[in-house]
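In this section we walk through a basic example: taking a raw amino acid sequence and producing a predicted 3D structure, encoded as discrete structure tokens. The instruction is simple. Fold the sequence below.
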Amino acid sequence: MTKFGIIGCGRISHRFMQGLKQVADASLTAAWSRRAESITQFVDQYGGKACSSLDELLASDIDAVYIATLPDSHAEYSIAALNAGKHVLCEKPAAVNLTQLEPVLQLAKVKGLLFMEGMKPPFYPLYRKLKEHLLADPIGPVGYVRAGSAVMDCPPEHPNYSYELIGGGVMQIAPYEAFLALDWLGPMTNLQAMGRFSGKEIDMFSIFQTQHDSGYAQLYCGFDLHGKGDALIVGSLGHITFHKNWWNPAKATIEYLDGRIVELDEPFIAGGLNYEIQHFCELIKNGQTESPIITHELSRQMIAMLEEARKQIGLKFRGE
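The resulting token sequence is shown next.
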């Protein structure tokens, strides 16, 4: 049994609990939040101990923490948890920039503890089934990825709009697109970005194209347009369409050069985070300190891509 402590009791933590209930060998033991009023409500709903401080949470009888706060505090809380001897599953992006992330990864290595950035798509049944299908029936070398999302329905008080909490399209949406490009095309070698701030301190819409070892990607993210939310993977023998919302993948269509069309339909349950949690718990059980799917190097490459995109559109956060 993996006993979890949760840091942060906002919306994503509720989705985490929806998934945790589906994982037989994991449970909630304790919770703490920067917003004291949210802790009691959270444990009343899901159980566990309500902690009055981070130190109290980390001193609890827990094996791992799930960090569900906004990105401004991810690195700080990851380091505190690792120093307390706890494994860490941290929401994306794992840090504000590569300078923040590197000490986290090095500390995890020194402590011999598991650190994994939360990136859910590759653990979904559809994504796994697609990868298995392509081993037997490939679309050839992949040379192009197109993906993105833009959402207009965030309420005005949403933290996505907060400069202090590391909001903006690049930091709040583009981690998913960065993962997809890197997963299918390999390491990035070049990037060109444009973005607009629309009167905010953070980017309200950004678009960037990247060059990789194997090809090119075109990616977009934002909050003042309403985007479709699908994704396209193009190879020499065919292409794949992830139908919206691609980051919660349930349906995909493969169209081959020879005219064949293959439809994949793999529904997910419990909001989808259960698959990521199950993988994390299995790593702990097996004594592994790094995910073979969301590797430390992949986390480095994802945050480096976001950092370069921000640099080019002129978005720096305090301390950078």
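Looking at the output, two observations stand out. The mean pLDDT is 96. Residues 296-313 form the longest helix (18 residues). In the next section we compare this with other chains.
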